[in-house]
């Protein structure tokens, strides 16, 4: 019978190309009349291969990427975080999601005047405000500031204040990404960033040294999997809250 080299359409029918032991080829109409191991068989065209859909890209936050869509015009709602490092971390992991939703993240540069800032912002159904605080644990200064801000008149349903347990957002990055078993314990009263740098043997003489240390940490964050769950859940809640604001 010969070796099957291929199938091709011709004159309204499908032809099979066979090669004999001498290397000569001939075309035959598909169908009955062929023998395989002495048995009569019918040759039929191979089934069409369905195109394989390209796997959809996922963003750093783990959500499915939305392709060929421009960033949405910024909403009136806002997300506030305590500092620039918090804002950069949120942008690196959730930036794609935030642009699709039109949500702006702004650093507070400290939360000591949070209640006054909330009062000036004026949360409303179409203008929600979500705040992410460091070290929001019972008895902390941040818990008191959050309580004061939540009591601002009119903020009840349009303000959400959440936080993580870490003294600084640096510690929300899994230490294993830096080759550490755990982040160093810094004595109370010592600046957490400066103390961390010194404990790790990194330069810590000025702001430039601290900024370089943060860039070193941030560079090791690839996606949400490099962050602690205590931060992940809070950021997801905050994004959902401001995304649900009335248009």
Structure description:
The protein has 247 residues and is of the alpha/beta class. The protein folds into 3 domains: 3-43, no CATH class; 58-171 and 223-247, Rossmann fold; 174-220, no CATH class. The protein is 29% helix and 20% strand. Helix 2 (114-121) packs parallel to helix 3. It starts with a strand and ends with a helix. The mean pLDDT is 88.
Gist?
This protein has 247 residues and is α/β, with parallel strands linked by helices. It has helices at residues 84-101, 114-121, 141-150, 192-199, 207-218, 229-243, and strands spanning 3-10, 13-19, 25-29, 31-36, 39-43, 78-81, 104-107, 129-133, 159-163.
Topology, please?
Blueprint: E1 3-10, E2 13-19, E3 25-29, E4 31-36, E5 39-43, E6 78-81, H1 84-101, E7 104-107, H2 114-121, E8 129-133, H3 141-150, E9 159-163, H4 192-199, H5 207-218, H6 229-243
Parallel strand pairs: 6-7, 6-8, 8-9
Antiparallel strand pairs: 1-2, 2-3, 4-5
Helix pairs in contact: 2-3
């Amino acid at each position: 019978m010969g070796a099957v080299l291929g199938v091709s359409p011709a004159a309204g029918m499908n032809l099979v190309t066979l090669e004999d032991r001498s290397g000569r080829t001939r075309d035959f109409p598909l169908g009955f009349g062929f023998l395989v191991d002495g048995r009569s068989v019918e040759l039929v065209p191979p089934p069409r291969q369905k195109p394989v859909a390209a796997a959809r890209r996922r963003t750093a936050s783990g959500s499915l990427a939305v392709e060929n869509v421009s960033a949405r015009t910024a909403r009136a709602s806002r997300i506030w975080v305590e500092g620039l490092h918090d804002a950069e971390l949120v942008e690196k992991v959730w930036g794609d999601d935030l642009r699709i939703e039109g949500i702006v993240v702004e650093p507070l540069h400290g939360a000591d005047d949070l209640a006054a800032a909330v009062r000036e912002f004026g949360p409303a159904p179409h203008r929600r405000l979500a705040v992410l605080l460091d070290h929001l644990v019972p008895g902390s200064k941040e818990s008191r500031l959050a309580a004061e801000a939540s009591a601002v008149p009119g903020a009840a349903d349009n303000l959400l204040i959440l936080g993580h347990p870490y003294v600084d957002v640096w510690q929300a990055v899994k230490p294993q990404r830096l080759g550490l078993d755990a982040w160093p314990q810094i004595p109370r009263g010592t600046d957490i960033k400066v103390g961390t740098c010194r404990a790790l043997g990194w330069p810590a003489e000025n702001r430039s040294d601290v900024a370089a240390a943060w860039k070193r940490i941030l560079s090791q964050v690839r996606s949400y999997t490099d962050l602690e769950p205590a931060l992940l859940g809070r950021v997801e809640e905050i994004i959902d809250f401001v995304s649900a604001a009335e248009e």
